[in-house]
Write a structure and sequence with these properties.
Layout: E1 23-26, E2 31-35, E3 38-42, H1 52-55, E4 64-72, E5 81-86, E6 92-97, E7 100-106, E8 112-115, E9 125-133, E10 158-163, E11 166-168, E12 178-183, E13 189-196, E14 198-200, E15 206-215, E16 221-231, E17 240-246, E18 251-252, E19 256-257, E20 260-268, E21 271-280, E22 285-288, E23 292-295, E24 298-299, E25 303-307, H2 320-333, E26 337-340, H3 347-356, E27 359-363, H4 375-389, E28 395-402, H5 408-425, E29 430-435, E30 450-454, H6 466-477, E31 483-488, H7 514-529, E32 534-539, E33 545-552, E34 555-559, H8 573-582, E35 588-590, E36 597-598, E37 602-609, E38 615-618, E39 621-622, E40 626-628, E41 634-641, E42 645-654, E43 660-669
Parallel strand pairs: 25-26, 25-32, 26-27, 27-28, 28-29, 29-30, 30-31, 31-32, 36-43
Antiparallel strand pairs: 1-10, 2-3, 2-4, 4-9, 5-8, 5-10, 6-7, 6-9, 11-14, 12-13, 13-17, 15-16, 15-20, 18-19, 20-21, 22-23, 23-24, 33-34, 35-37, 37-41, 38-39, 38-42, 40-41, 42-43
């Protein structure tokens, strides 16, 4: 990694005057960022690729840069332990305190922690320097920028953690140091174990008391346990408390995301010297091949979307408000499960999913290519993901790989080893690996509990309706396989519209009509919902996102398979298709509002309604012969004749409570025309890029 020369310093005084058992202080202001010869003051989170990865293909900065600040640590902190915890740095980092290396990390998506007090000059100015490099390299996953960009920079928050000499471990792969396990969960009882890693950096044993307490959602104490012992100074100790909850209030996904709280306190001489609180959602996940997903013994619908973490003109340096905006869209559409692709995402995001009741797939960025040099790093990133996210009740599965193949023997062996690591770290959750091929016998398959398959019928291969034969074949030949459809969909450029749609589209051409995306989702969701053999399905993708190596569909550096545009300003027709099918909130929606320059006088009208059969009017006249489409919310009127010029379409319905809902769009007809489409079918199996 290059080490640029620095000439700018910034002085700051940490603002804590009195210390509690543990203090966690934001450490994000007044950093100097330097790339090449330019130095600017920034506030974290920050990325240097906020725009260049998003506006032009293969034209972004990939390399090294630096962050630097100065800070005064008061004399009163002597004897305390000080840690810097980085939530995410893209993608390799070295941390220096007063010129001395205090930590390094390889991987752009997991947190890491550096202990720094031994290098601090208390009462004096101290220099903190972070060298960052987002160059793709063969020993750090992901090994390229092909499917998504590795945004360079300290793009998630940094925290200064201050503890006593004895503490609940801060440096256990940047985890909380507390691990909550559960088994034999039912509505009658649940067995809960709380393991706490403790650290003593002194030179003598210290008599301590560890207390673990479980509180209900109101803050009422349910049960507690105390243990007294001497905390040794050589290596960490891991005492465990065991509880049996009677008639627990279960975490039931979106229906009832009830959370207990577990607080672990470390006492010395009758005083609390460290304290950590973690969520506890009491639940049991079970997958039964051919039948579905069960939450606490009850079959649970897995309405899934996938989510990349970047925003237009922000990159990956997101605020909590932006995470909340994304979650609001996901909740609004009626999704029950989210695949956070293709890497570990924000801790805040996972915590919000706990409280919202979303069921989460978390994964590492072993994706797209194999080099033979990523073995150690893949294991380390999986270990970090599991330990840092262990206590989130929303997470049901650890993702091991996505679309990685040759050399097959090495990839299979690595995946098998990752599965073994996941089961050693966390026996209570499932593992999953994802293949871009559609056949079960592929040599890298069956190395995890769940087999995921990404299928893009009609887009990258074959025809839209070939999804039927694919799933029916697997159902017949491999009825015991736990299968998930882990990606499906099609791109949609909102500037591209047409009425002329075949059963396939040539994605190598520049014309990506929204109407083809809509047609794909209408049919394929209808097939998915008829096949419980598909345990869960994940729409690719919830939001458009940056693909900095791509030049496709008329927009450079963009994947447009999202249901929502990259800037989060426009909801595509497919968004409302899923909202009508999934959500309990009322939906009445006329499709093709952007396809308003009509190509044919005689056309069809489509309405999504989860309120029942709507009344539809064209220029004030009621349309007859409305029929059901693929699902109960799908309504179509065929052979509708437009007038010359402007045509007003209205859909109206009154619910059981007498409340009226209406939707309206305007179409224009100026004579017969036909926009250019290429419906060439790719008959070869597609497996990824």
């Amino acid at each position: 990694m290059r080490r640029p020369v620095f000439i700018f310093l910034l002085f700051c005084l940490c603002s804590i005057t009195s210390l509690k058992a543990r203090d966690i202080v934001p450490f994000n202001d007044k950093w100097f960022f330097k790339k090449d010869s330019l130095s600017t003051e920034v506030t974290l989170p920050h990325t240097w690729n906020a725009t260049d990865m998003q506006i032009k293909a293969k034209a972004f900065y990939e390399g090294s840069a630096s962050y630097r600040k100065s800070c005064l640590f008061p004399e009163s902190w002597k004897g305390k332990r000080l840690f810097l915890r980085f939530e995410g740095v893209g993608s390799c980092a070295e941390v220096y305190v007063n010129g001395k290396l205090t930590g390094s990390h390889k991987g752009g998506y997991s947190a890491f922690t550096c202990e720094i007090q031994n290098e601090i000059k208390f009462g004096e100015e101290n220099e903190i320097k972070v060298l960052v490099d987002n160059t793709a390299r063969p020993d750090v996953i992901p090994v390229n920028h092909n499917l998504f960009g590795i945004y360079g920079g300290i793009y998630r928050p940094v925290w200064l953690i201050i503890t006593d000499s004895c503490n609940i471990a801060v440096t256990d792969h940047a985890s909380s140091g507390v691990y909550i396990s559960q088994k034999n969960v039912s509505r009658q009882s649940a067995e809960i174990s709380v393991k706490v890693k403790l650290d003593n950096n002194g030179l003598h044993p210290v008599p301590v008391i560890l207390e673990n307490v479980i509180y209900d959602v109101t803050g009422k104490q349910i049960t507690a346990e105390r243990q007294s012992f001497d905390l040794q100074f050589q290596g960490m100790q891991t005492p465990t408390s065991h509880f049996k909850l009677k008639r627990p209030h279960l975490w039931q996904g979106r229906e009832d995301p009830y959370l207990y709280k577990v607080t672990s306190r470390l006492y010395q001489n009758g005083k609390v010297i460290d304290e950590i609180s973690q969520p506890l959602g009491v639940r049991n996940y079970e997958i039964i091949a051919g039948k579905g997903f069960f939450l606490n013994g009850k079959k649970y619908p897995m309405y899934g979307v996938a989510r990349h973490q970047d925003w237009w003109e922000t990159g990956a340096a997101l605020s909590n408000e932006q995470h909340d905006t994304d979650l609001a869209f996901i909740m609004d559409i009626g999704a029950t499960t989210v695949r956070f692709t293709h890497y570990q995402q924000s801790e805040y995001l996972y915590s919000r999913c706990d409280s919202l009741g979303l069921i989460i797939w978390a994964e590492i960025p072993f994706v797209n290519r194999v080099t033979g040099k990523e073995w150690e790093n893949a294991h380390n990133q999986l270990r970090e993901l599991i330990r840092q996210s262990f206590n989130h009740p929303s997470i049901y599965v650890w993702g091991l790989h996505n679309e990685v193949y040759q050399p097959h023997a090495y990839t299979a062996q690595l995946t098998r080893s990752l599965h073994d690591l996941a089961k050693t770290e966390d026996p209570g959750r499932y593992t999953v690996a994802v293949n871009g091929y559609g056949h079960a016998e592929h040599p890298v398959n069956m190395q995890a509990d769940i087999q995921g398959m990404n299928r893009y019928f009609g887009w990258y291969e074959k025809k839209i309706r070939d999804i039927d034969a694919w799933v029916e074949h697997l159902e017949t030949e491999y009825p015991e396989m736990k299968l998930m459809l882990t990606e499906y969909g099609a791109d949609a450029n909102l500037q591209h519209q047409t009425e002329f749609l075949g059963e396939s589209l040539n994605w190598t051409k520049e014309f990506y009509p929204e109407t083809f995306q809509t047609k794909t989702h209408e049919y394929q969701w209808a097939v998915i919902t008829k096949h419980p053999y598909i345990i869960a399905s994940y729409v690719w993708n919830m939001f458009d996102f940056a693909c900095p190596m791509w030049e496709r569909g008329g927009v450079p550096a963009r994947n447009m398979k999202g249901l929502v545009t990259f800037d989060r300003k426009t909801l595509k027709d497919s968004y409302f298709w899923y909202k009508a099918n999934w959500s309990k909130n009322p939906v009445l929606y006329l499709t093709q509002r952007r396809n308003n320059q009509r190509e044919t006088r005689t056309t069809s009208v489509t309405v999504y309604s989860n309120l029942g059969t709507p009344k539809v009017f064209l220029n004030g006249k009621a349309l007859d012969n409305i029929r059901k489409g693929y699902t109960e919310v799908h309504y179509i009127i065929d052979n509708v004749t437009l007038a010359n010029g402007e045509n007003k379409l209205q859909a109206v319905i009154t619910d059981r409570d007498g409340k009226e809902y209406a939707d309206e769009i305007i179409w224009h007809y100026q004579g017969e025309q036909r926009r250019s489409t290429d419906n060439r079918e790719n008959r070869n199996e597609h497996s990824g890029f």
